Structure formats: structure tokens, C-alpha cells
Amino acid sequence: MTYRKMRYIGFAIITLVSLALPWITVEGKHLFLLSFDKKQLQLFFTAFNMSELWPMLFLLLILFLGIFLITTLGGRVWCGWACPQTIFRVIYRDLLQTKIFGIYKSIENKQKMVNERKWIEKILAFLIMTAFAIAAAADLLWYFIPPEDFFAYIQDPSEHRILFVAWFIFTALIMAAAVFLKEKFCTYVCPYVRVQSTMMDNDTVQTIYDNIRGGAVYDAKKQKIDKIGGECVECDACVRVCPAHIDIRAGMQLECINCLECADACEKVMKKFKMPSLVNWTSPNAVQLREKVKFIRFRTIAYCVVLCIVMAGLLFMSTTKKSMLLNINRDTELFRISNDKLRIENTYKMKFENIDSKEHTFYFEALNPEIKIKTPKEPFKLKAGEAQTRVGILFTDINSSIKAQNGEPLPIIIRAFAVDDKEKIFIEKQAVFIYPSAENIR
Question: How many domains is the chain partitioned into structurally?
Fold first, then answer.
């Protein structure tokens, strides 16, 4: 199977997965959803609200470490095999402009159009690509606005103008990258290509022309020379097929996206001479030293180890997710003495947040037998995702043993819990209770 066919299969799988992921739900929770509307991150069918976005740190670490590992192993393999911009370019140039409308002569020649004046065909290709871009932009938005909400929102444009503006911007960006910038996007716009070279070494797999077998075509300054000897027949098939419009025989270049179209073209020509391709997916050391590619080396092992640690941390932290949050702020007034001078009161602002998927009834207690609750007197209900701030007043008797503190803050633990599931849904927070000194009571 040619590299081109393998890439097409990969493109189809990536497209299907990206379209399917937003629809995968369990009990209303998505596999992945970063919802600004609901102020939630849903990951692995678990909802995290905006005050517990620690999984995003792990996801970003996994993303960057994964990029480092992939680049160290396979160079620009992402660019040619998985990048959305590359997929859009293949759809527009290879499928629409070449296969369907014949604007280009064939996929094997991406350098010249058959007829520059095929205006009707060009307009049709542009319109169809616009439809693709609109669908792709909608799919991207589904990772921020779930499909069930998206289709409800677009029925009322006046109330959801920001959604339509974002949809238009994403569509325009896709069209600009695929239709107008073309391969220049990779060279001048994409930031990833600028840092790739720092993550690659002589054992990184790349698209490489074997100048030992084929003979040198360019000198060290990438100036073309009169080739002497070697197996390269200078058919230029590798040049005509290149979507980046480069000559791979000049060595690795910034524009190369590792699509391996040149390897397929060279293999097709060299097969006629019963010889293997002069362009292969291999490493510089493997070519120069005539040895196998070294995939297992210190850098790749280090990335794998760190990546595994981060993933294990994410899984562990996910299992410790709480179903409620509690934030306590003590009132600026140190204490209050009741009118009858029988008890000492401390006031707290308590923010309760139900981050479970269903409604619960909440209350709290101070884990000190001498401290009691004045208000609120009764438990209260919170819907899923709802937050409420309650004023809690704790008190103790004037003759309590706490008076031995003599004005010093007394550390206490406030335990908030769901009345209907006290054993599983609870949280404990430290606070302080202040008992006045003797002269303040008089």
C-alpha cells in the first residue's frame, strides 16, 4: 500500500473520530467538552466546574509532551498525516480540483493547472469547499457548545449572535488556510514548524533522499549541480508530486511536511529498474551509517516516562473528584456577645456549591461539641451545578471551656455534607473561632 493511500485512510479515521466525539455521552456527560456556556469541563464523562479546572493542566501537559514525543520520533509526521490544514488542502486540491473538476492534470503533478481559465469549475470547487468549511467549523464549536445545544441555539440567531460570529470566523480561517494561504500556511503561519527543529536529531524519522545511492544533486549550499553517477535518473517525479513545491533531493527543508508523496513517486519510477526507492521514511543516521532507525533512545524513553507519570496523575486525581465545594470567609467582626451575655457568636460567609450531577440537600456542623449553629437553622437544597452563599453563625456558651483561649483564635473544623448522602458527599474545611478575653465580656 502506498503512503498516499495510508494517509487517506488516516484522514478518514481522524475525520470520523472528530465528528463522533462530541456526540458520545453517558448520562448527559460528554467524553470531552469545554463549555463556556455551562462553565464546565467534561472529561471522561465527568463534569468539572470552573473552580476545579486542574484537569486542564494535565491535558495541556499531555498535549505538549505528546507533541514532543511524536516530533522526536517521527519529525513532521503530524504535519503530513494528521494536521487539519493538510486534510483540508487534500480535500480541496486532490479531491475537488483534481479528481472531480480536473483543474489539475493529476495527483502526480501538483505544480501546474491543466487550464487556468476553468472559472466555472473553480467556482464550484470553492463553493463545495465552503460547505466543507462550514461543517468543519461547526464540528469545532461542538467541543465548546454541545451539539444538542448548538442546534437549539442556531434556531434563534438574535439571541446567540456570538455563536454565529464565532462560526463565521472559524469558517473564514479554514477557507483562508486551505484555499488562499495553501502550503504557505505551514511555512509562514504555523508556529509548530518553527520549534520542530529543536526537538529533532539525527535519529528522527524524516523524508530523506539517499544521496549515497542516488548521487548528489545539490551542493552544501542547496545549489543545483551537474549530477555525476548514482541511481537517480532525474525524472523529477518527486518534484512534480510535491505539494510544498520543493525538491527533496536538496535535503530536509522547512516546507517539507513529511507527506511522503515523493517516496511514492520515486518508488513507482525505480520499480521499473527493479530497484528500491531513493526517497524513504528513515533517519539521517540510518542512511549515512546504513543501519536501522533507533526508535528507543534516551530522549524518547524520557518523554514516555514523563508522559506516563502525567497520565497516571490525571487518572488518580479523577478518582478523587469531590461532589461538592465549600468556601469559608470569616466576617471581619472578631466576635459578638449576645444581648443577654450568655453566649459568644462568630459569623462566617459560606459558599456551598453542588458539583454533583443531581440535586442534594446540604447542611454543616462544627466538629467541636461546645460550638453550635445559630443560623441557618434548616438544611437547604441545591440543584446540580448550583452555588449559594449562606451566612453561618456559630456560638458557644459564655462559660464554655473555650474561654480558656483568652482571646486566642481556636482552630475548628467545619464539616459540610449532603444530608441525603452524608457518607459519600462531604467536605471539611479549617476555620477559627474567637472567644474574647475576660475584660471584653464585662
Answer: 3
What pLDDT is recorded for position 323? 78
By residue range, what is the domain housing residue 137?
3-198
**pTM of model > 0.85:** no
Position 177 pLDDT exceeds 70 = yes
pLDDT on residue 187: 83
3-class SS string, the chain: CCHHHHHHHHHHHHHHHHHHHHHCEECCEECEEEECCCCEEEECCEEEECCCCHHHHHHHHHHHHHHHHHHHHHCCHHHHHCCHHHHHHHHHHHHHHHHHCCCEEECCEEEEECCCCCHHHHHHHHHHHHHHHHHHHHHHHCCCCCHHHHHHHCCCHHHCHHHHHHHHHHHHHHHHHHHHHCCHHHHHHCCHHHHHHHHCCCCCCEEEECHHHHCCCECCCCCECCCCCCCCCCCCHHHHCCCCCCCHHHCCCCCCCCCCHHHHHHHHHHHHHCCCCCEEEECHHHHHHCCCCCCCCHHHHHHHHHHHHHHHHHHHHHHCCCCEEEEEEECCCCCEECCCCCEEEEEEEEEEEECCCCCEEEEEEECCCCCEEEECCCCEEECCCCEEEEEEEEEEECCCHHHHHCCCEEEEEEEEEEHHHCCCCEEEEEEEEECCCHHHHC
CATH number at residue 328: 2.60.40.10
pLDDT at residue 436 is higher than 90: no
The pLDDT of residue 116 is 66
Domain match, 225 and 348 both: no
- Residue 276 included in any domain: yes
- Asked whether residue 183 falls in the same domain as residue 264, the answer is no
Q: What angle do CA 406, 408, 414 make, to 5 degrees?
A: 120
**CA 278/CA 5 separation, integer angstroms:** 20
Same domain, residue pair 178 and 215 = no
- 235 and 186 within one domain: no
Q: What percent of the chain stands above pLDDT 90?
A: 42
Among the ranges given (8-22, 110-124, 259-273, 376-390), the one the predictor scored with the smallest mean pLDDT: 110-124
